[in-house]
Specification:
alpha/beta; two-stranded antiparallel ribbon
């Protein structure tokens, strides 16, 4: 299946989820992440959810990570295809970007080579660990700068697509895991 077809399909499916249901599913996702062997790592990069796009709410996961004394790192878009990463602290001021993404105004920058685990936003994924995002390439560019050992975890309300994503590009970065409310996929 082509990425553009999947983007359309899953954008519509997510739009049909009520805010209350999204909140419940996001909590289940956060609890399911406890099954993945990542708890000996220190730096966890996580996207901040775009509420208007019915994304997985990452706040329960952020609370879980902070409760386990992990360093939580959040992105800020700085150019047409790159992001900087900032430590999320009690003093971090957030401001919505033009795309509606909450981003840090400033703070303590964390280089890519320190990041151990990345929670990756997505619209869809297949059983091979290929993912479909919004198509801007921010996360693929970022993940290609991270160490090869960095663990990449997708978060999805929906299960893996049965059909393989056919238009995977050579710069697309595969997931190591994807967590849904029903299952933890390992690739």
């Amino acid at each position: 299946m082509l990425k553009r077809e999947l983007r359309k399909k899953y954008t519509n499916l997510r739009a049909a989820i009520t805010p209350a249901k999204a909140s419940d599913l996001s909590l289940v996702l956060a609890n399911n992440i406890l099954q993945i062997p990542i708890w000996d790592f220190f730096y966890f990069h996580i996207f901040l959810s775009i509420e208007e796009k019915s994304e997985v709410d990452t706040l329960p996961l952020i609370t879980l990570l902070q409760g386990k004394d992990k360093n939580v790192v959040v992105p800020k878009v700085v150019s047409s295809n790159s992001m900087e990463n900032y430590l999320l602290t009690d003093n971090t001021s957030l401001k919505k970007s033009a795309w509606g993404v909450p981003e840090p105004v400033d703070g303590i920058e964390v280089p890519e080579n320190k990041i151990d685990v990345v929670f990756v936003p997505l619209l869809a994924f297949d059983s091979l660990g290929n993912r479909v995002g919004y198509g801007k390439g921010f996360y693929d560019t970022f993940l290609n700068k991270c160490p090869k050992e960095t663990i990449k975890i997708g978060l999805s309300f929906f299960e893996a697509e049965n059909e393989r994503i056919t238009d995977v590009h050579k710069n697309d970065v595969k997931l190591d895991y994807c967590v849904t409310p029903k299952k933890v996929y390992a690739f």
